[in-house]
Amino acid sequence: EVQLVESGGGLVQPGGSLRLSCAASGFTFSTYWMSWVRQAPGKGLEWVANIKEDGSQRYYVDSVKGRFTISRDNAKNSLYLQMNSLRDEDTAVYYCTKERLRSLDYWGQGTLVTVSS
Amino acid sequence: DIQMTQSPPSLSASVGDRVTITCRASQSISSSLNWYQQKPGKAPKPLIYAASSLQSGAPSRFSGSGSGTDFTLTISSLQPEDFATYYCQHTYSSPPWTFGQGTRVEIK
Q1: Which of chain B's residues have a Cβ under 8 Å away from the Cβ of A104?
Q2: Which of A59, A104, A110 sits opposite B46 (nearest CB)?
């Protein structure tokens, strides 16, 4: 059974940093692209970033470029999102997702990031 | 970036109704279009990929069609568990891969 379990969310002040983690199991992690998707309270879904199987390609939505870094450790079956220079508008539930055939076929339960002073 | 526009933003329907949701892309995206269902407080669930292919585990009453810029999600006979918000997402070419703003399906 595929499982994606996010952790690392919490309350952080504007300008601060946070690192999200996603522990993957139930599939061969090293053979799939992975993505982060977020959802601000009461709002729709926003695709944030993704990373190739071997980490050699990474893409970001414009609003996080230069501030967020997606990475992975295939030996640990883990996906990460390093978030720096956080802003109020980064407040959201962040979902870890697995990609297959250019769709997001499995989602974690999400972790809440709140940016507030 | 490619923009995705869903319509209607919300709709009211009864159990057993046939429901259609539309998604329009700001440029041609071939068949690179996915649909997801989200219930309050839960993670989204995948329904359709590549415009018309049913995701494993998704009920067969859900179907997708379209190519180019115009796409539809159809629920052939609405069930009580289908009341939720539905999102389209394009995955054409290189990211970013944007979502539509969502369509909320409510009980009439």
Answers
A1: 34, 36, 44, 46, 89
A2: A104
CA distance A39 to A46: 6
Residue B82: closest CA among B35, B20, B39: B39
CA-nearest of B50, B46, B78, B79 to B64 is B50
Q: Looking at the complex, does the CB of residue A29 fall below 8 Å from at least one CB of chain B?
A: no
Cα–Cα separations (whole angstroms), residue B63 to A54, A113, B49: 34, 34, 10
Provide the pLDDT for residue B70.
98
Amino acid at B8: P
**pLDDT block averages, 10 residues each, chain A of length 117:** 98 98 98 98 98 98 98 98 98 98 97 97
Q: Which residues of A touch B56 (CB under 8 A)?
A: 105
CB B78 within 8 A of CB B17: yes
Distance spanning both ends of chain B, measured CA to CA:
36
> What amino acid is encoded at B62 in this protein?
F
Q: What is the pLDDT of residue B108?
A: 86
- Specify the pLDDT at position B107: 87
